[in-house]
């Protein structure tokens, strides 16, 4: 992506405002995301500078803002070889826009103001085939082995492995992909130039060389605890599915699973011994119907293949006869509002069906043109159906 | 159960015919089960003696039959302290009649002609709270530990642990129950007086002393390979749910899970490392939606509590308002034939819903009187519903 192409769609003032905002606001701040959407980044930046109470979360952002110059931030980043990529710019991965859609529909997953990128990879290309592999920092040898093997197999299948570069499962996943020359993305809660954890400095260098390091906080930022949870939504959004390899009951990895669900992506779960606390969080996800059990790369590919978001259209589905549709399909369709972008979660609530069943039905309805997939949601299609002719 | 009480409901000739049939027919023979239902045991026995081709499976049963005397079999068994219990006799567990129901509706699970019993336990009382714990003969230490711990916890919760007395998981389950003075039932593929496997002779003696040994083949019978699979349906039928602890992809334990599903009972599955082939069959059950993942006794009790078959009615459910019903409930009910006993499997096929969703909906519909549970199936209830008033 050349800088020239970027400037075609997003003004340098907008970019500077976003960069500045990323330096003084909390990652994933919903009010900031809404204000930027409604008023634009420049006006939001002015509001922060002006001390707008509605936006002032930390009560220090105004004071901090006075010392921030977005243009300077961008310039310094460029000198370090760090790009700043904003929504709608060429190279911005379309799946990330599912976050923007949630601001209106479903559980809110605030989109990042932009993403700081470091490395040789092309984010949009990498995200097209990305699968996240996440889990506990304090993983077991079983978990590390599974994460590494799975990442290796995903890389060999041409998938990008997304993770958070943390100790344990994350590192095993990145290494598994790098080990076979695969591509991998590390999404950090700190600046893309900050080696955190410090002992992963070499790992991060390898990731930058073969893939990409991504963050929504500016270069040089040290990670704050809350930022790890916000960071997890970027991991989920970049990936067609997220594999949770090991997670104790209150593990941070479970937050990635929650983001995954809010974004209608596949949560895939590796089981383990019931005698291991590190698998207890995983088992709970499966028991609650919040995740699909997977036992290897074939299961993962099958599951994200079913999702279809990031996959080429399946010609077989085009010819599926309407006669194959079952009452469950009709029911899902009957509960969709004519003028709304529906979410799987919303329809699941309205119908009482499991979310997985709703998602499957929507995909099958889409195959016959009864509904259409659109920016992370679903809309009634224009095809005349038996239902229309009946009413 | 006294012999006098038995003779009130079933004639000695019928008992003798069933005993004789159990000696010359294959356990679980569907044609025999259907003929006995339609023509009675005595007429079926005469047909076998007369060489009825339609019933002659092994081509040797007629020759064998000529040497069998049912009355003698019963007498010899009585001398050994072995009872023969026939359907509808006092002491016959009601849940076993779910097998008879399947002959008309759903996948056929042929009921046994009767059950040979050895031990001090009361079968009907034990079956009221029974949970099966089954799995691979060649189990891992992990599997053996889980089976033993789970059986111990089930026994401490007042449940009867049902299993097959085989090596591995079965033995660990029986021992786990016996270890805390719990009750346990061993269902054998050989005669109840045949110590098989031989090294389990002492274990079987303990089971007989504290619980019950059950078989549908007469005393003295050596087990045939095919009989183990047929035996598994008795394990499934006696239990509100079956826990599969470890099962390789083609393990016999998976046949118990199949029977469990055919009988609309809960299939509960213990996960394990994905690196262990002994857990692969378990994971497949979960992935296919054929089983519910459980991680301990609480999960098991919750799952079989939900089934409700063997549980006292829940007063809270009586007062559940109809307003709580969701479209999914209406859909399930709309697809039920007015005059039929419906099965979960049949409704799942007809609606396209997962079987678990159908089962949940039926239970919730039953709570408001819209459907009734009956002999292992479901029937439309008589309550006037919004649907009736609408059509």
Automatic annotation (TrEMBL), chains A, B:
Superkingdom of the source species: Bacteria
Entry's Gene Ontology BP terms: DNA-mediated transformation
Pfam families to which the protein is assigned, alphabetical: DNA_processg_A
Gene3D superfamilies with a match to the protein in the record: 3.40.50.450, Winged helix-like DNA-binding domain superfamily/Winged helix DNA-binding domain
Annotated ranges, domain Smf/DprA SLOG: 88-304
UniProt cross-references to InterPro entries, sorted A to Z: DprA (IPR003488), DrpA_SLOG (IPR057666), WH-like_DNA-bd_sf (IPR036388), WH_DNA-bd_sf (IPR036390)
Family: Belongs to the DprA/Smf family.
Protein name as catalogued: DNA processing protein
């Amino acid at each position: 992506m050349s800088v020239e192409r970027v400037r075609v769609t997003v003004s340098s003032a907008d970019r500077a405002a976003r960069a500045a905002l990323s330096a003084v606001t909390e990652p994933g701040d919903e009010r900031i995301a809404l204000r930027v959407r409604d008023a634009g980044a420049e006006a939001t930046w002015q509001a922060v500078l002006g001390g707008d109470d509605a936006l002032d979360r930390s009560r220090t952002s105004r004071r901090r803002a006075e010392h921030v110059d977005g243009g300077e931030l961008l310039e310094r980043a460029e000198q370090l070889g760090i790009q700043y990529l904003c929504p709608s710019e060429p190279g911005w991965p379309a799946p990330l826009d599912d976050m923007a859609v949630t601001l209106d529909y479903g559980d809110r997953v605030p989109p990042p103001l932009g993403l700081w990128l470091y490395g040789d990879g092309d984010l949009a290309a990498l995200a097209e085939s990305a699968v996240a592999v996440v889990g506990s920092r304090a993983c077991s040898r079983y978990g590390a082995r599974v994460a590494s093997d799975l990442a290796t197999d995903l890389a060999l299948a041409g998938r990008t492995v997304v993770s958070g570069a943390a100790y344990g499962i994350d590192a095993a996943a990145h290494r598994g992909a790098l080990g076979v020359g695969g591509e991998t993305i590390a999404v950090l809660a700190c600046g893309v130039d900050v080696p955190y954890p410090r002992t992963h400095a070499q790992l991060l260098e390898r990731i930058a060389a073969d893939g990409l390091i991504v963050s929504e906080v500016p270069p040089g930022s040290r990670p704050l605890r809350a930022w790890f949870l916000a960071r997890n939504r970027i991991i989920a959004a970049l990936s067609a599915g997220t594999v949770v390899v090991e997670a104790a009951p209150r593990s941070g990895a479970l937050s990635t699973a929650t983001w995954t669900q809010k974004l209608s992506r596949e949560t895939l779960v590796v089981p383990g011994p019931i005698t291991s606390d590190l698998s207890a969080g995983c088992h709970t996800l499966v028991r609650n119907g919040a995740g699909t059990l997977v036992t290897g790369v074939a299961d993962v590919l099958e599951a994200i293949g079913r999702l279809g978001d990031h996959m080429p259209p399946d010609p077989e589905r085009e010819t599926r006869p309407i006669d194959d549709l079952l009452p469950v399909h009709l029911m899902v369709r009957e509960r969709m509002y004519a003028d709304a972008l529906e979410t799987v979660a919303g329809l699941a609530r309205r119908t009482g069906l499991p979310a997985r069943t709703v998602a499957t039905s929507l995909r099958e309805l889409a195959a016959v043109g009864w509904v259409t997939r659109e920016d992370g949601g679903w809309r009634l299609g224009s095809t005349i159906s038996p239902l229309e002719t009946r009413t």
